[in-house]
Fold Protease HtpX.
Amino acid sequence: MQQQPYQYTKGKIAVERARMSSDNVVLGVTFGVFFLLTFGYFIYSYFDEVAKHLGGVTFLGGVIGLLIALVLGCVFLAVSLGIGMFLTRMMRQQMLGNSLEVQYSAYAWLRDWSNEVAADLEMPQVEIFITQNPVINAYAFGFARPYAIVLHSGSIRYLTEDELKVIVVHEMAHIKYKHTDASVYLIPFLIIPIINMAGNWIAGFWRRRTEFTADRLALAYIGDAALVKNALIKVHVGPDTAKDMNDVARQWLQYKAERPMNRFAQTFSDHPYLVRRLSQVDYWDTAFHAAQAQPVQTASATPVQSAPNGEMAAQSSAASTQTPKPPVPPRKRKNSQGSPKGDNASEA
Ligand SMILES: [Zn+2]
């Protein structure tokens, strides 16, 4: 029986290439830690009470206590999730009241373009709002439809049309890979006072990864590494001195970024350092080109490989995802970077 040739659109290939399954592993671990923290409180409270009243804990008492803790924990999660979904919807309603939807502006083309991209990436169309904020930035939010991207007015002013496309695809990636949905599930753990400080730090490891993944989709879809890097540089250092981020500046920042103290400091940031993002773009650009130069590989012939930031780039193994994931070039320690980043609203 003759096998049909695989029909991959540009969007499908980009989505498969940029996908990093280890992101979900890190997200799972994050949820696990949060569950323990949450249930741990209820369990401790229960046993503390029992110990006070009975002077000890029986086996039956322990089982009942555990069940009560589980039920209370689930109720807490359900209520918190409901609040998170409500807040997300309120955010969108406020956008509708306080900002301009891009299709009513001179940038209407951006909405048309994003609709085409959404079809290509096989994801829901996104609303794009422009809000008054001179800082170049953007973020995505939503839980199920509708999903929205908010562009700061500074982005409109200082970014070229092509750079705006980079930012929009980056934000669309947060929706496509369900980073925005997952962020809503994280809300319950991040609204509890005291715990939320540790919670944000813990969630940061996953969030920073999502930024790399969103950058990677922008690169894989748009295919212009210099353009993607220019957009990122403008977002991080501003438009006036963006052109001054030359090789010497990058090498110095890269060198410092590898120092232990710098790496530790980054764990308190919801985005990866700029130089790490730039290095990732260069790294994957090389990898994507290497993949294009080679015939499509089958799953059985492709080992798991390590990306420069330590993430595991597992090759697709499912028959439905036999898109060529790029072979990874020689490990470049100098250009490697560390951990990754997010929020309810995933900023660029
Ligand atoms: Zn982002």
